[in-house]
Amino acid sequence: MNRKQFVILLVLVAILGAAGLVIHQRGQQSWHRAGQSIGQKLLPDFPVNDIAQITVKSGTNQLNLARRDNVWSVAERGNYPANFAQLSELLLKFADLKIAQVEEIGPSQLGRFELLPPSADANAGTLIEFKDAGGKIRNSVLLGTKHLRKPSGGSQFGGDEGWSDGRYVKADDAKTVALISDALDSVQQKPESWLNKDFFSIEKPRSIEVRFPEATNSWKLRRASETNDWQLADAKPDENLDESKVSGVTSPFSSPSFNDVLTGDAKPEVSGLTNVTLVTVETFDGFTYTAKLGQKHGDDIPLVLTVSANLVSSRVAAKDEKLEDKTKLDKEFADQQKKLVEKLASETRLTNWIYFVPGYTVDSLLKSRSQLLAEVKKDEKPAPAAK
Description:
The chain is an alpha+beta fold. The protein has two domains: 48-194; 205-372, no CATH class. It has helices spanning 3-37, 84-96, 243-246, 268-271, 323-348, 359-362, and strands at 53-58, 61-68, 71-74, 80-81, 99-103, 126-131, 137-149, 163-171, 177-180, 205-211, 219-222, 231-232, 260-263, 277-283, 287-293, 300-309, 353-358. The radius of gyration is 33 Å and the shape is elongated.
C-alpha cells in the first residue's frame, strides 16, 4: 500500500466514524425524547372549559357537536340535545390521556397504523377536533388502529386474537405516533350514539285507548282508581277481559327509550308515519299522553308524542283536619305539584320530534281488541260483561 492509498483509507475511516457518531447521537436523542414523553399527557395544554365544538371525521362522514347557551346538541340530528354526561366524560378523558409508548415513524408508515387523514382509504384514521366557540381548532387527535394484548399461554377456547388495551394516536402536529392505554371506544362517529336519551314516562294510568287504522281492532281500558280492576269500555255482552292478557298493556311507556330521532317536519315516506295507530293515555295526575305510532322500520317504530296536563291548583282539606296535619299535607301537595310542573315542562320539549323506539317498547300495546278477550268455549254461554 502506497502513501496515497493509505491517506484515502484514513479519510474513509474518518468519514465512517463521523457518520456512525452522528447516527449514535441521533439514536440517543430519539431515545431520550421518547423517554421524556412516556408518562406525559398527550394534550398537555388541553383547554377543557374552552371547548365548545367537537368534530369527528371518519371515512367520508362527519359528526358535529356544539355547545350553545351551555347546552350541547347534535347538528346532524337537527340540533337535538346531546348527552351532557357522555360529552363531559369524553373531554375529561382527553385532558388526562397519558402516553404509554412512542413510535418515530416516517409518513410512508402511517398507513400501517391506520393514521392516514380521514378518507375512503382502508388505512385512514378517525380525526377528532376540539374547537372553541369561534370555531378555532385548539387540539386535534388522529385515532389509528387499536393495540391488541395477546392472551398469555393461549386461550382454552381456541381464540388468540387478544383484546384491545390501547390505541395508536397522532396528536396535533406531532411527528411521532403515541400509544395510549385507552382504546377510546366511546369516540363514535354515529350521531345517534351522542343523543340525550332521557325520555317521557307514564305514571298512574287511568285510561288507555288504542285506535288502529282498522277500527274493529281498537279498544279502550279504564279504571275508577289505582286499586280498581281495569274494565273494557263499551264492552259487548260477549266480551270479557282476560286478566292475563291485559296485564301486558296496563303499564304503557313505563320506562321507554329511543334509538334515533328525526325533526318533526320529516316527510311521512321518510319517517314511516303513514297509517298511524293512535295511543292515548290519561293519568290520575292529570296528564294526557298521545302517541302516534307509524310503520315498523327494521326493529324500530316511529313515534310522535303530544303531552298536556290539567293539574290541580289546590288541595281540598278534610273537615276534621288538624292544623299540624294540614300544614304537613299542604307542603307535601305543593312539593308534588312542583314535580309535576317540572315533569310537564321536560316532556313538552319532546313533542317536536319523531322518535324511533325499539319495537318491544310498544309491542304489548299493539294487541287487537280480540287479543285482550277471554276465550269462550263453544259449549258454554259467555259471562255477562262487567259494568
